[in-house]
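Regression test case RT-17, inverse folding.

Input:
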């Protein structure tokens, strides 16, 4: 038989289509444009309280008592910055905002610096009982903050730290370090050993190795830790209620005091609440890329 005859007798092989699983079909379905529209709508829905708070802070107390914040879309003349001017004239709010910065920034920096050093030590330095010490640090993660409030308050009262900003910073630093050490130790342990040994062969000591090699590689994880610690300390109210006095209260306690003493003082509460919320949001969005990189670090090899 000729080649042409054989071709007619034996048909060309047809490509076999692989059977797609139900999971792949669902993944393709949810990645469509309809799902994206739904997610955008959900995101806008979650932003409604923030938008409402912003618009309320830009309205006069008379307008807020007469109608809802959504009326500004039909009457934009209601918008005014008088509430923010009154806020700046309120010494309790402005001082509490400064106290919040004085508490949050040192507590975040101390946790990041000490946690980074301890995480590197637990990951790459040999010392007696290293694994047992690390297990003890991990065990501190399960201790609730409420358990230590009264004992530490009594201790701070005896040493003269109760009611001071430094005492609040120490408390937040102490409770932030176990998570910081646990997170950074696991991240630093993923650094290739060959890279560290090459730096040691070039004459780098431990401090230089930590500053020149480990810190740049651990930037995403350190940024993520800094964001977590900043948000936790900035929004804290329980610790501040226990360990601060009238002159050292952060913004969260000051706003709560305003509500208790002046329930109708909405022209100060609304802009104060918005400022206390927008600052951590600005910090988060400023370091959003590093935060995502730190969260995804180690997810893929």
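Golden output:
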């Amino acid at each position: 038989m000729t080649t042409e005859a054989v071709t007619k007798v034996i048909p060309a092989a047809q490509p076999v289509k692989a059977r797609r699983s139900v999971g792949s079909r669902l993944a393709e379905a949810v990645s469509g444009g309809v799902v994206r529209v739904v997610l955008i709508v959900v995101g806008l829905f979650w932003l409604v309280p923030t938008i409402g708070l912003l618009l309320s802070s830009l309205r006069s107390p008379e307008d807020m008592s007469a109608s809802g914040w959504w009326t500004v879309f039909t009457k934009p003349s209601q918008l005014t910055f008088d509430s923010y001017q009154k806020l700046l004239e309120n010494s309790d709010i402005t001082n509490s905002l400064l106290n919040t910065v004085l508490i949050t920034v040192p507590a975040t920096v101390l946790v990041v610096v000490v946690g980074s050093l301890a995480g590197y030590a637990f990951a790459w330095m040999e010392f007696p009982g290293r694994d047992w010490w690390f297990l003890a640090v991990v065990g501190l993660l399960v201790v609730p903050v409420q358990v230590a409030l009264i004992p530490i308050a009594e201790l701070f009262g005896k040493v003269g730290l109760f009611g001071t900003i430094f005492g609040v910073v120490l408390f937040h630093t102490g409770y932030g370090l176990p998570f910081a050490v646990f997170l950074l130790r696991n991240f630093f342990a993923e650094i290739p050993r060959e890279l560290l040994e090459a730096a040691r062969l070039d004459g780098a000591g431990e401090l230089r190795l930590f500053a020149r090699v480990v810190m740049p590689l651990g930037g995403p994880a350190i940024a993520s830790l800094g964001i977590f610690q900043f948000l936790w300390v900035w929004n804290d109210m329980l610790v501040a209620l226990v360990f601060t006095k009238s002159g050292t209260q952060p913004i969260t306690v000051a706003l709560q005091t305003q509500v208790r003493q002046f329930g109708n003082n909405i022209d100060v509460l609304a802009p104060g609440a918005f400022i206390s919320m927008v600052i951590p949001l600005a910090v988060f969005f400023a370091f959003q890329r590093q935060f995502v990189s730190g969260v995804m670090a180690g997810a893929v090899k």
